[in-house]
Write a sequence for this structure.
């Protein structure tokens, strides 16, 4: 996950450390706590295409919205944005508040495949 | 002064004649008056002749002496003139030393020429000695100045790198505790404090004419440059950025520009009431990109404003030694960068009553905003090209298509200035196996490509390196190799994967697997 583009020469050796000129506290105006506590790293996010992106949105916000055009977990979005998960939680929860993102917490029960199918999958996998 | 000698000569001769005639008359007349015989008369005559002789001798002697005196006077006059000349030369020399050489020494300005000794050997010797002394003092001062600067730069670098280390550790801390808001909060506070420390240390180095200790390796959008600058001042929450001209700043000047803007923002935040916003507006103009920073302060009077403008625009260099007892490093740092990198900075009165700082980043230092690294990464990794991808390519002016020797900025400029959404055809288009754009030179404030908005699968799939090699897919120039995936990332991917069981893709996958398994079973 080390960003090869934006890094300090000091941090060449660094693992998992990506430096960026725009610091995290600037992105969220110093807020570290999300406005809602329902968003977990595995929470699935999806952008609402009906709501227009606000003019004042920062690049990171736009990037997050662009990434979530499909359904994407928050942790994965954070990995793509090379931002800490806890920071993306703050950004995402703001976007959920403003209606730009919607949460899909987990698979709906009715959509789960039935036991028969799962057993077939298991058998199939064993035979591979 | 022309010839003073003849004037007293005539009366002296006249005096001599009168005295001789007087004495002779007395000698000739006195026997007639007082004499009583020839003997007495003879005696009188003899005495008179002697007297006349004595007088004549005396007169002749005195005439000689007078001539000698005249010569002496002439000599003295000459001597006086010589001395006056020497005196004048030495006075000029002294004046030059006091009024030209010494001030030049104290201010460190250009060395004025030494005075002309005008043939006076003593003066010449003094001038030579004084010149040597001055040169020694000057060299000594330079050496000490250099030593002090080197020490300040070294110390500043140490402080700066320790501040960067603090920032790095703060970032690691957040990555180690990805779900903890408290850790994020602490990290933000640490990061902010360290960023200001690093800025102050970097200001010291900049005042000593040194390049900043930090460099970025990629062009940065102008709005991010301003946000990066805001992050280095205390009141970063008061900075309000408006406008995103879609221009990026070349990697080379990213750090200097961030530092310049940080100092200007710090000044603006400091000189306006703490509850007001510092307004920053970004614009794209024909000659580059413009950043305007307005404060809500009370402004400056004309004299001080002129002085501040001189310093900020780099016209008046201010070094470490000129800062005074209450050092104000902000504008001198701005001036130092302006002189070095060729931004243009001006400070005028703001319409809000305070000051407005205007920074022009020339076109040579700007680039079109590249497609965000995140998006290129996500999009170029997509194995099967979507048909909607074509419009992007046709509308894209890829700098890599520029013929060799053509300046990339010039190459892209017509597109930038015309502001058209469709770019002209590249001069020598190269066939492409993969049409995804590496850069998007259009000044489009929306960095994300709309044509991708369609039916993206839920999860961006990664190409395996092996299939990539087998398929002979060309890696994009400039694209970084995919970093080795960590267990953490894999876990996240898997978590997301398992969470997304309702997506069509997963159903397809399950169907495929079961189908294969059934086939296998049937075949056996």
């Amino acid at each position: 996950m080390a960003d090869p583009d934006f890094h300090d020469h000091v941090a060449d050796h660094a693992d998992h450390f990506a430096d960026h000129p725009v610091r995290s506290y600037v992105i969220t105006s110093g807020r570290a706590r999300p406005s809602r506590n329902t968003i977990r790293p595995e929470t699935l996010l999806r952008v609402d295409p009906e709501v227009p992106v606000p003019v004042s949105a920062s690049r990171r916000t736009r990037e997050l919205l662009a990434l979530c055009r499909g359904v994407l977990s928050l942790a994965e979005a954070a990995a793509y944005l090379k931002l800490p998960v806890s920071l993306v939680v703050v950004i995402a929860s703001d976007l959920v508040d403003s209606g730009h993102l919607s949460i899909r917490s987990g698979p709906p029960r009715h959509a789960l495949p039935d036991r028969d199918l799962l057993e077939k999958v298991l058998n199939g996998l064993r035979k591979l | 002064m022309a010839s003073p000698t003849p004037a007293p000569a005539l009366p002296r001769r006249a005096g001599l004649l009168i005295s001789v005639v007087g004495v002779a008359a007395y000698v000739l007349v006195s026997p007639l008056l007082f004499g009583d015989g020839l003997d007495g008369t003879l005696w009188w005559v003899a005495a008179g002749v002697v007297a006349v002789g004595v007088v004549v001798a005396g007169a002749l002697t005195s005439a000689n002496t007078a001539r000698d005196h005249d010569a002496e006077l002439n000599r003295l006059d000459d001597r006086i003139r010589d001395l006056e000349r020497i005196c004048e030369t030495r006075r000029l020399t002294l004046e030059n030393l006091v009024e030209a050489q010494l001030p030049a020494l104290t201010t460190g300005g250009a060395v004025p020429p030494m005075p002309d000794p005008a043939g006076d050997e003593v003066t010449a010797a003094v001038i030579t000695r004084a010149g040597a002394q001055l040169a020694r003092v000057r060299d000594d001062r330079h050496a000490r100045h250099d030593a002090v600067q080197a020490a300040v730069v070294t110390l500043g670098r140490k402080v700066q790198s320790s501040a960067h280390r603090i920032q790095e550790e703060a970032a690691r801390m957040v990555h180690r505790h990805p779900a903890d808001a408290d850790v994020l909060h602490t990290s933000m506070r640490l990061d902010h404090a360290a960023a200001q420390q690093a800025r102050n240390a970097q200001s010291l180095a900049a005042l000593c004419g040194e390049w900043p200790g930090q460099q970025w390796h990629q062009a940065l959008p102008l709005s991010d440059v301003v946000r990066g600058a805001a992050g280095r001042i205390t009141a970063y929450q008061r900075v309000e950025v408006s406008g995103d001209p879609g221009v990026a700043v070349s990697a080379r000047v990213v750090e200097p520009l961030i530092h310049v803007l940080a100092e200007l923002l710090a000044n603006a935040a400091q000189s306006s009431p703490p509850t007001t916003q510092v307004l920053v507006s970004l614009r794209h103009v024909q000659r580059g990109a413009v950043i305007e920073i307005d404060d809500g302060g009370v402004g400056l009077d004309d004299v001080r404003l002129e002085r501040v403008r001189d310093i900020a625009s780099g016209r008046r260099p201010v070094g470490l030694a000129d800062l005074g007892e209450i050092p104000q490093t902000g504008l001198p740092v701005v001036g130092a960068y302006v002189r070095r990198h060729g931004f243009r900075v001006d400070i005028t009165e703001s319409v809000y009553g305070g000051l407005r700082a205007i920074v022009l980043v020339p076109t040579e230092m700007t680039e079109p905003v590249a497609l965000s690294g995140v998006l290129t990464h996500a999009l170029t990794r997509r194995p099967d090209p979507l048909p909607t991808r074509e419009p992007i390519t046709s509308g894209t002016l890829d700098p890599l298509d520029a013929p060799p020797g053509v300046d990339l900025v010039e190459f892209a400029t017509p597109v930038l200035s015309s502001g058209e959404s469709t770019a002209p055809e590249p001069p020598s288009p190269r066939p492409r196996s993969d049409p995804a754009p590496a850069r998007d030179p259009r000044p489009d404030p929306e960095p994300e490509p709309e044509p991708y908005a369609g039916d993206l699968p839920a999860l961006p799939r990664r190409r395996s390196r092996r299939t990539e090699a087998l398929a002979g897919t060309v890696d994009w120039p400039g694209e970084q190799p995919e970093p080795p995936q960590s267990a953490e990332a894999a876990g996240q991917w898997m978590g997301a994967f398992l969470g997304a069981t309702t997506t069509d893709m997963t159903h397809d996958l399950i169907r495929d697997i079961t189908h294969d398994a059934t086939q296998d079973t049937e075949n056996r």
